Amino acid sequence: MSNSHTKRRLPPLGALTAFEAAARHQSFSRAAEELHLTHGAISRAVSQIEERIGVNLFIRRNRRVYLNAAGQRLLKTATETLDALSNTVEEIYRHDSASPFLVVSCEPSVAMRWLMPRLGDFHEKNPNLNIDLRMAGGPIDLLSQGCDVAIRRTDFGVNEDYHITHLCEEFSGPVCTLDYWDNSIKEDLSKGVWLHSRTRPNAWGDWIATSDIEKVNPKSEQYFDHFFYALQAAQDRLGVAIGSLPLVLDDLTTRRLVAPFGMQPTGYHYAIITLDDPNQDPRIKVFRDWLLVQINLMS
């Protein structure tokens, strides 16, 4: 069968939409209500498809309609096709430079402990641009993951095709509550419970290697799946964790946590990752400029 012959048999998109609704509800009346059409319009659309392909799709009995085997096959393909078209159109719309949406992929810890508390300020300053925040870490494929921007800690290789905007250098050090420090550790880290993150398993060892503290063994240790869990555990007085700036900035500012040994540079930094120069997309430029202002406020 030639491609031209196949294309001639394809039903119009409008008729296919009407069929999908009728098949899903197994009711022409309910499909008409959903699509704001008349019962007759739905019936004509279904008949048009049946005439085009030469096969009945419904069993019509006692003013009711029921999908037959051919109708069930077409419903499955029609649903997948219409969903794919809808998703593609939505992606094109959301990623157009004139779109009111900006899709941002951000590491969960950065998002929860630094970015999200500040997004209210962004929305106040940019009410016509909505941030669609996706939680993800590690390497990023902006195109396949449908994202415009990624915010990452650069502890992995970044494809040279990407444009990288430096945000800030990372600093780290032990953090805990003042109460835990005064009553449990008493300036001796070996008396504390060390809180670890499986996403940053070398955090304690890396900090000790760059600090003036002699290697010590903790009283006990506890492990968490994610970095932000370990930081929350420290805030809940369960022990002492390695915190990093900017993630614990707000906690240190409000004294929810203290960093008795200060903070040391980790050798990593946080960055904005985009496909092209942010200046080429007004949405990305606005978000990039706002992020840089927020970073400068940390100084």
TrEMBL record:
Keywords: DNA-binding, Transcription, Transcription regulation. Residues 11-68 form the HTH lysR-type domain. The keyword Transferase does not apply. InterPro entries: LysR-type_TF_proteobact-type, LysR_HTH_N, LysR_subst-bd, WH-like_DNA-bd_sf, WH_DNA-bd_sf. Coiled coil: none annotated. It holds the Pfam family HTH_1. Signal peptide: none annotated. It comes from the Bacteria. PANTHER family: HTH-TYPE TRANSCRIPTIONAL REGULATOR (PTHR30537), HTH-TYPE TRANSCRIPTIONAL REGULATOR TRPI (PTHR30537:SF74). Belongs to the LysR transcriptional regulatory family. This is LysR family transcriptional regulator.
